[in-house]
Write a structure and sequence with these properties.
The complex is a heterodimer of chains A (166) and B (247). Chain A is an all-alpha fold. Chain A is 63% helix and 0% strand. In chain A, α3 runs antiparallel to α4 (65-75) and α5 runs antiparallel to α6. Chain B is built from nine helices and two strands. Chain B is elongated, with a radius of gyration of 22 Å. Classes of the chains: A mainly alpha (166), B mainly alpha (247).
Chain lengths: 166, 247
């Protein structure tokens, strides 16, 4: 009976440990801190750092986009919160937007962030009720970022300088 | 006493050994980047899987793994499942042990791979017993460890000295391409290899016979010892028969 019990414990333990190793190699954490974050995500107890998020929001409202992104990256290290990813994308959009020309690198990074936000949102639809923003859905933001990176004849339209940043 | 010995042997066989081998499987591919100090997980390259297959075949031919004891039709299903899992962990631990001492890319990766392949292939046709095989493997892995983590990383590390300059002068035009890792990588590799060799030492004695009793209670036996004992017993019984006939 004892032998059987030890064998069962051995089989269960071996499978669990092997699964954990496969998971570690699949998620490729870069530090022990990231291992802890990934474990929280896997266990379903992951939460963003609200204080850092609020700091980022106040910096964003003062047009300190790069600093705001740093705060939000710290608030959501696993990139698993749709709302935070939406704000990061918005910060990329606002910094990358230009009256004469856009910064393609920043807009592409914004596009990656908004895609993450859409993938994380339930049913792929995300709405953020923030009166300071002019675009409230991830879909709107994505279209704006895509248009910003595309090349077309409208780019040479001189009236373009009168358009407004959203 | 026998009860405790039996229980401890089972714990060693079904829990400690897989844990050691899986830890090797985890640490074998772990590197620490020299600049960012971040973890890098390198999955086992295809060549290490081939090397692991050759090594397992060597274990079987040398008697370190007695397959008919590990997997048998007259054993309970649970025992066979547990043994299969241990063999699987041994395979991945072997692959990762090779991964740990193989340079990650470039000419040195292929040179090391070739020497490992050559050594293991020629060993397939040599007469090995378990002890000699384990000694040979310990030497093989420690040599590769010294070459990779002491010599090559010293030569091509970010703060290499006159040896680095000499090597780059001699090997001008040859792409060596050695990624820079933090010294912690060497410590992790050392620990992984020590665990692996420790696991191999535990491997032989814990394969229990089908009835669940060890060959001699409390005394783990290596396959070679077992065979030697059987030979001696046979010779003694022959001698007794001769004496009986003469008398």
């Amino acid at each position: 009976m004892q032998r059987r019990l030890i064998q069962i414990a051995g089989v269960v333990w071996t499978i669990a440990y092997a699964t954990a190793i496969v998971w570690i190699y699949a998620t490729e954490p870069r530090s022990l801190k990231e291992v802890a974050t990934n474990t929280q995500v896997a266990a379903g107890v992951y939460e963003i750092n609200q204080a850092k998020f609020n700091n980022g929001l106040s910096l964003f409202r003062r047009d300190q986009f790069r600093a705001a992104r740093d705060e939000w990256t710290g608030a959501d290290p696993a990139q698993k919160d749709a709302r935070t990813q939406f704000y990061i994308a918005y910060a990329f959009y606002r910094e990358g937007w230009g009256r004469l020309y856009n910064d393609d690198v920043l807009l592409k990074q914004g596009l990656e962030a908004v895609n993450r936000a859409i993938n994380l949102a339930p049913n792929g639809s995300l709405t953020v009720d923030d009166p300071d923003l002019q675009m409230h859905t991830a879909a709107e933001l994505k279209v704006e970022l895509e248009q910003g990176t595309e090349r077309s004849w409208s780019d040479v339209n001189p009236l373009k300088v009168f358009r407004k940043r959203k | 006493m026998t009860h405790y010995a039996d229980r401890n042997r089972q714990l060693l066989h079904f829990i400690v050994l897989p844990t050691m081998l899986l830890t090797v499987a985890m640490l074998g591919g772990l590197r620490v980047d020299a600049h960012s100090k971040q973890f890098l997980f390198i999955p086992p390259p295809l060549v290490t899987l081939v090397l692991a297959v050759l090594l397992l075949s060597l274990f079987v031919s040398a008697g370190a793994i007695e397959l008919h004891r590990w997997l048998a039709i007259d054993q309970p299903l649970l025992t066979n499942v547990a043994h299969s899992l241990t063999l699987l962990t041994l395979f991945f631990a072997s692959a990762q042990a090779f991964n740990s001492v193989l340079p990650e890319s470039g000419l040195l990766h292929w040179l090391f791979s070739f020497f490992f392949l050559w050594t293991l292939w020629t060993n397939q046709f040599s007469a090995f017993d378990t002890r000699r095989l384990l000694r040979s493997l310990a030497v093989l892995f420690s040599t590769a460890f010294v070459l990779k983590h002491l010599l090559v990383s010293g030569l091509y590390g970010p703060e290499g000295g006159w040896l680095k300059r000499l090597a780059s002068m001699l090997l001008q035009g040859v792409s060596i391409d050695v990624p820079a890792f933090a010294p912690a990588t060497g410590y992790i590799s050392f620990f992984a290899l020590a665990l692996y060799i420790g696991g191999l030492l535990l491997l032989s004695p814990v394969a229990l016979p089908a009835n669940g009793q060890p060959a001699i209670a409390g005394l783990p036996m290596l396959a070679a010892d077992r065979k030697r004992g059987e030979d001696i017993r046979e010779r003694l019984s022959d001698q007794k028969e001769k004496e009986n006939l003469l008398s």
